[in-house]
Amino acid sequence: MEQVYRCYAEKRTGFDVEAEKVWRELKEQLGIANLEGVRIICRYDVDQVDKEVYEMAKTTVFSEPMVDDFYDETMPPIQGPHALLIVEALPGQFDQRADSCAQCIQLATLCERPTVQNARVYVLEGDITDEELERIKAYLINPVESRVASLDKPDTLDMTAAAPENVRRVEGFTTMSDAEIEDYWKSMGFAMSAADMAKP
């Protein structure tokens, strides 16, 4: 039976260059005085693979044994006061890291390409206030391409899209009065002005 496998990889001290960079930026750019450190943990979910393939990918695709600490299914231990921020790509947004992992598994096994999802877990060490966490979110998350992710592991990585609603039709628009056009314009939030709508 297919299942979703989850794992985590974190650069060891001395190799965690990106985490150090993010920590400095948050301290200097945002002035988060109580931020004592930042850890960045890569989270991978993989679906549509056999267990043997997943076992192989643990240390050849999802982590580098010489520089990474690897954790299977469970988050690495976190001690002391901290805040967690998990960031993932929006559905349908291309994720280079996840795509590269899927390609590597396909090339190594000559099997069908699996589905891989990637998320970044930011461990913000220190007494971080809710207001500071919101500022950090705004700094680290580009809402055009990413969002806050859940801690929960999904049952499947298959993307399902809801069927779109029928397109609403407007009857009698050409016979509307100026006042009716104004009301309709307000209700729809159009970018054009009501005057533009009224032009023949």
How is this structure best described in words?
- With 200 residues, the chain is of the alpha+beta class.
- Helix content is 32%, strand content 22%.
- The chain has 6 helices and 6 strands, in the order E-H-E-H-E-E-H-E-H-E-H-H.
- It has a 6-stranded antiparallel sheet, covered by helices on one side.
- The model has no long low-confidence stretch (mean pLDDT 89).
Topology (SSEs and partners):
Elements: E1 5-11, H1 17-29, E2 37-47, H2 51-60, E3 68-72, E4 82-89, H3 96-109, E5 115-125, H4 130-140, E6 146-148, H5 178-188, H6 194-198
Antiparallel strand pairs: 1-2, 1-3, 2-5, 4-5, 4-6
| Biggest beta-sheet profile | 6 strands, antiparallel
Radius of gyration using CA atoms only: 23 Å
Question: Regions with pLDDT < 50 over 5+ consecutive residues?
Answer: none
Shape: flat
Structure class = alpha+beta
Our measurement of the CA-to-CA distance between the termini, rounded to an integer number of angstroms, reads 62 Å
| Strand order, sheet with most strands | 3-1-2-5-4-6
Indicate the proportion of strand residues: 15-25%
Mean pLDDT: 89
Number of helices: 6
Helix and strand sequence: EHEHEEHEHEHH
Helix content: 25-40%
Number of strands: 6
Task: Please give a handful of descriptors for the protein shown.
200 residues, alpha+beta, six-stranded antiparallel β-sheet, 22% strand
